[in-house]
Amino acid sequence: MTRYASIWFPFLLSEHAIRKQPELREVPFVLASRKKGRMVIDASSKLATQKGIFSGMVLADCKALFPELEMLESEPGKNEKLLLALAEWCIRYTPFVATDFPDGLLLDTSGCTHLWGGESAYIETIKEKMKSFGYTVSIAIADTIGMAWGIARYSPQNIVPEKKQYEALKSLPANALRLNPIILSKLKKLGLKRIDSFIGMPRESLRRRFGPELPLRIGQALGQELELIVPIKPVEPYMERLYCLEPISTATGITIALEQLLQTLCTRLESEGLGLRKATFSAYRIDGDIQQIEIGTGHPSRNTVHLFKLFEHKIATLEPSLGFELFVLEAPTTEPVSEEQAVIWNALNQNDKKIAELIDRITARKNTNVISRFLATEHYWPERSVKEAEPLWEKATVEFRSDLPRPIHLLSKPEIVQVTAVLPDNPPLFFRYKGKIHTVSKSDGPERIEQEWWISDGLYRDYYCVEDTEGARYWLFRSGPYEKEQPQWFLHGFFA
């Protein structure tokens, strides 16, 4: 059964201001902004509310009634920023958290409350945490979003038993249905202040008199109409969570938590024939701070030992302070593991396994740019005959040429060299490269490579494989023929 929790912050902005300026705790104050040429109250503190001052009132009128009232200027969009931050913090209680502007949050608590000992303990835990942050909250849990929203704001109870929405809804005021002010005003004029005074009326009658919103809201509260919410963070299909009875502040404790989560996640991936390509380990600190470390793999992997080694050296970057109370491991990127890939982890292929693990460890410690792999492409022009593999384990579709010599290191851009050669087509006798003169002792060529006319125009190249007196081997070419002007020579690669 799906269950929802609604968290209401009646003094969100004012209590945030008190957190920044504790001296305001004992002072009635409001936050206001200019609207249509006059200052209008956006939020009032608890003490100001007790004086009868509420949001929407004109500041000048309130100051006339209560001259001691303090005023702070509102920051545009502040409540949205606060709710987003609080929603992210609440992910420790459920992976599905949504903002409910302007002053609330919505949580899908299905399958989560038992981890805290039930719904009552779940609510009290959140309340105590919010209280420690300086926020007053009202929380309710029910089968529907609308029911939880209304109970949190207009009822002293905080838990509606399963399938008991109708009984709970009847005792609430009409405001608990999230209706617009025009409909509420019409209901009030007719004396329909409580929901039980009109909930039994035919829906068609309510629709004709008050429009479609009223029957829709009743249906949503009772679970008869669909209502969807969008979480602030998409819930990853492959996510494991580990709650801590006591805050964890040691590297040993973090290591044990990570190993346990990896074991659980990899067991699930194996049952579904998948391996992860990217994983994120999140640690939620008791003071609200959230810290993350990430890894990536070249091949889809579900080898817990290998994956832990990728995370291991990053554990030291986590700062537990007073301790972590929740750990979450997510695999946002997964891929099917074919039989061919699965063989990598068999004992019969230890060499392949070691190479794959070594590459993953290097990229985890440095970055993904420290290792490159190149594949052959269907081009004769040397610069176009190879490409970088993306991803690293991209399968080759073309074999490298083996009928003609090619350098093991091909320069991305040929470099000009000065050459002494016998005309017209003899190989170089000497060449100068980076200020050093190389005497050629052996040579092979020329191999003529024409421009690919369907791609670009230009001179042909005559390539020579040459070896100098020190035994180093180079790939040189002459651009075009000898004519009136001397053609240029270039160094394009190095042989082993």
TrEMBL record:
Domain of life: Bacteria
This protein's UniProt keywords: DNA damage
CDD domains, per the entry: PolY_like
InterPro entries: DNA/RNA_pol_sf (IPR043502), Rev_trsase/Diguanyl_cyclase (IPR043128), SulA_CellDiv_inhibitor (IPR050356), UmuC (IPR001126)
UmuC domain segment(s): 18-149
Pfam families with a match to the protein in the record: IMS
Keyword Protein biosynthesis: no
PANTHER family in alphabetical order: BLR3025 PROTEIN (PTHR35369:SF2), BLR3025 PROTEIN-RELATED (PTHR35369)
Family to which the UniProt record says this protein belongs: Belongs to the DNA polymerase type-Y family.
Name recorded for this polypeptide: Y-family DNA polymerase
